Amino acid sequence: MSEFSKSSLNKVVRGPKRAHYDRALINEILDSHFLCHVPYVHENTSIVIPTAYGRKNDTIFIHGSLKNRMLLSLLDQEKVSLTVTHLDGLVLARSVFHHSVNYRSVVAFGTPRLVNDSDEKMEALEIITENIIAGRWAEARIPNEKELNGTLVIAIEITEASAKVREFEAMDELADQDLDIWAGVLELEVNAGRVVKNQDCKEGIETPASVKNFKFQNREVQGR
Amino acid sequence: MSEFSKSSLNKVVRGPKRAHYDRALINEILDSHFLCHVPYVHENTSIVIPTAYGRKNDTIFIHGSLKNRMLLSLLDQEKVSLTVTHLDGLVLARSVFHHSVNYRSVVAFGTPRLVNDSDEKMEALEIITENIIAGRWAEARIPNEKELNGTLVIAIEITEASAKVREFEAMDELADQDLDIWAGVLELEVNAGRVVKNQDCKEGIETPASVKNFKFQNREVQGR
Lengths: 224, 224
Known about the structure:
two-stranded antiparallel sheet
C-alpha cells in the first residue's frame, strides 16, 4: 500500500497543503534521520525523550536500558507516537508574521511490542546502528549474549503516519512585496565536524570507512 | 536561585551522572537552540510537535495559529513539558553496546498561560524571532494589530527542569580496549548553508546583517 490511510490521529488539520501520507516520502524522511522524539506519560504529564531509531518496512526499532522509564512506559500503552524533524532552513519574509521554517517532519503512530527473540533483537540493533552510521556494524564488536540480555528493544509497528513538508521561498502579503526588506531562505544543514580519535585508541588504527564516508542525509525530498 | 529543585518529574533516573539542574547550564542549552518538541495528548495518544520558542527568564514562549490543536490542547493541561535537543556527535566505541551520542538536552516543565496582553504578545514574538535569528526583528515589518490578533501565544512558566549532557570520548569495557577497532567521536554541527534570495525580492536589496551574521550556536557548554 503506497499511502497510509487517514485517521483522526494522523490526519493533518493545520496546514493540510503541507501534509503527505505517501509511504515513499514518509520512509525517505524517516531514513534520512536517526533521532526521533518519543512522548510518554509520567504522573499525568507528557514527557518527550530523544532517542535513536532504525526502520525495517513498517517497523521502527528503538532501544535502551532494561530500566529505561520511557521504554517501559511505552509498553503499557496501546498506541505510541514518534516524531522525526529535519530543520532545513529559516524562511525570512518581509513581515515577521510570515516568517517560517523549511522542514520535513513525520509523526508516526504504532503499536509497541517488546522484542524478545534474540535474532530479531540482534537484527534490530544492527538496523539502528546502521541507520546512525552505515558500515559501523561490520567494524565494531557486536553485542554478546550478556549485552543483548541487558538491552531493551521495542518494535513499533506503524499503523498511521503523516509527513509535513515546507520547502519553498518566503510568501508575503501582496501589500508587503514593495517594502525595501530582503526576503529569502537561509538554509540549514547538519554536517560532520571534527573526527576526534579516542585517547586510548590503539596506535596505527586508521579512521574507518564508516567515519570517512559518513554523511548526514540532508538530501532533497523527492516527489512533492 | 541557581538550581531547579528536583521533583519526581524532572529528577533524572537513568544516567544520573549526566544530569544537571543548574539554571545557567539549562538556560545556555535553551538559548543555543530555537526548536523544541512539545507533547500533547489527543485521543489518549501523546503526540509530539516541533515548534519554535524563545526564552525570557524562566518563561518560554511558543506561538502558532489560533486554531492550532497542539497549542489549544496545552492550555487545557495543568503542566506541560518541552524538550530541546542538540545532537553534538556520534560516539563510536569498539563495542556496539557502548556506542552512544554526544548531546545536550533539556526537559523543562511548566504551567501554560495564554498571553492576552498585546504588549506581552508583541514582546513574546520579538523574543521568539530574535531567538531564531538575531537582528531580524529590526529588519522586518513587525506584526500589525490584525496579525497580532490572529496569533496565539502561550507562555510556559518553567517550574522544573533538567539537562542531560554527554560530551566525552567513547568508553569501552577494559577487555575490549585491545581490539583492533577504531574508537572516537564524529562531531556533528548545524551550519548555515546557501542563502536563497526570494525570486520576488526587490532588486538592489542586499543580504541583511541578520543573515550575514547568523550562526547556529553549536557552542561548547561551559561549567560541567
